[in-house]
Amino acid sequence: MTSRKTSNELFNRAIVKIPGAVNSPVRAWKAVGAAPIFIESGSGATLIDADGARFLDYVCSYGPAILGHACPRVIEAISEQARHGLGFGAPTRIEVELAETISSAIKCAEKVRLVTSGTEAGITALRLARAATGRPNIIKFDGCYHGHSDSMLVRAGSGAMTFGQPDSAGVPAELAAMTMVARYNSIATVNEIFSSAGNKVAAVIVEPVAANMGVVNPEPKFLQSLADLAHRNGALLICDEVISGFRLGFGSAAEAMGVEPDLIMLGKIIGGGMPVGAVAGPAKFMDLLAPVGPVYQAGTLSGNPLSVRAGLETLRILKETTPYGALDAAGARLEAGLRDALVKNDQPGCVNRAGSLLTMFLGPTRVRDADDARTSDAGKFAKFFHAMLERGINIPPSQFEAMFISTAHTDVDIDRTIAAAVESIRLTSARS
Questions:
Q1: Whole-number pLDDT of residue 432
Q2: What are the two backbone dihedrals, phi and then psi, of residue 258, each rounded to the nearest 5 degrees?
Q3: Mean pLDDT rounded to a whole number for the chain
Q4: CB under 8 Å to 284, separation ≥6 — which residues?
Q5: Residues 203-225: what's their mean pLDDT?
Q6: pLDDT tens-digit map of 127-141
């Protein structure tokens, strides 16, 4: 077994001063029953931990590292910007350029407001929807995660799903009651809510491709039916593309599927690995934001020059190189290999994929919503996770997270991962 002496020492120091020793819950590895490794550096598709061990990485900072870690052009852009200053409390030219780049790639994004996280983007989008409609309630989907604002920590995915906590302590019951929960891929459940409380619903918020209960694709016509139903009832459609935006194509995944959101949330890739978020939409909604309109939103570090410059350079590279075909091919190669690993070991499970996003579910043979995802064998996944780690493959430490592929991953990397998966599933099955 690889030594984790330094990581364990750092964990013991961290747990004294940092709640749970981490600054975001999924990093704690609680779902896989271990203390996490601490990372020293990353380059391309590789991470190096505090003990010098090297790992082929499929976490990719949970999405932003689409070009791999420490992409030279992005690092140079950040370094150059740092020499000019880290922030000014004033507008900058590059904020305008990033907004223009986003707007040119996403039809609905007539105007863009930059914030510092996906959570902030969600807070702002919900506030805008409530202001635009004069209604209080929101419809979300079981297993979808839209940040850790009070309104959205109701049947949330990501870390909340991993830890079996559909709600969070500290969220007032009165506020939680304004969030109504439907089942992903089920228009019938949305229709039921509108039938009972349609005149109170400000917006429906959805991940066009769900990625926080594991990857779950929308079924044909689901998103369009959702948009039609929302609009017939006077509500807005908010598409949370913090993960899918600019990952599945250069722009919006929803728009690529023929659906134009009323508001769109972005993050991750548009910051090139630096903290960022954005909410965008038609001018008639976006101009409700202060200082033009009555909806207040602010942030000292919104549009931070380092984040904006990193995001601009990342988007420029993506536009120049158009890597999405190659990313999809790499995803298809890994998907096929993981499916084969299950078959070779006679193990039940399935692999869901959208481009360079994928999840292997251990147990269920079909996953189309959160209820299906919850039938996964979390104990078996934990054993699989550790077996993969011992073979130098770093995957997310939860059955309910997505694996990410970057442009730095090669066919050799993918084949190495498949071979490790075949052996890891075999060992996992033998230990069960």
A1: 52
A2: 90, 15
A3: 94
A4: none
A5: 97
A6: 999 999 999 999 999
Query: Helix, strand, or coil here: 263?
Result: strand
Token pair of 327 as six digits = 């990313």
**Residues 233-276: pLDDT tens digits?**
999 999 999 999 999 999 999 999 999 999 999 999 999 999 99
DSSP output for 207-222: -SSB-SSS-BPPPTTH
* Residue-wise DSSP of 344-401: HTT--EEEEEETTEEEEEES-S--SSHHHHTTS-HHHHHHHHHHHHHTTEE--SSTTS
| The two structure tokens encoding residue 165 | 């906590």
CA distance 360 to 417: 13
Q: Which residues are catalytic?
A: 145, 240, 268
CA neighbor of 127 nearest in space, from 210, 230, 236, 212: 236
Residues 6 or more apart whose CB falls under 8 angstroms from that of 50 comprise 6, 7, 10, 37, 38, 39, 40
| Separation between Cα atoms, residue 154 and residue 240, nearest integer Å | 16
Q: Give tens-digit pLDDT for 68-126.
A: 999 999 999 999 999 999 999 999 999 999 999 999 999 999 999 999 999 999 999 99
323 to each of 32, 335, 358, 407, how far by Cα in Å?
33, 18, 17, 7
Instruction: Give the model's pLDDT for residue 159.
Output: 43
| Residue 392 exposed, middle or buried by CB count within 10 Å (0-12, 13-18, 19+) | middle
Residue 139 and residue 243: Cα distance in Å, rounded? 20
Handedness of CA 365, 369, 372, 373 (dihedral sign): positive
Q: Which amino acid is at 403?
A: M
DSSP designation for 25: G
Q: How far is CA 31 from CA 7, 332, 378, 415, in A?
A: 18, 27, 8, 27
Which contacts (CB < 8 Å, 24+ apart) does range 187-196 have? 187/222, 187/225, 187/226, 187/229, 190/139, 190/226, 190/229, 191/229, 193/139, 194/139, 194/229, 194/233, 194/235
What pTM value is reported for the model?
A: 0.94
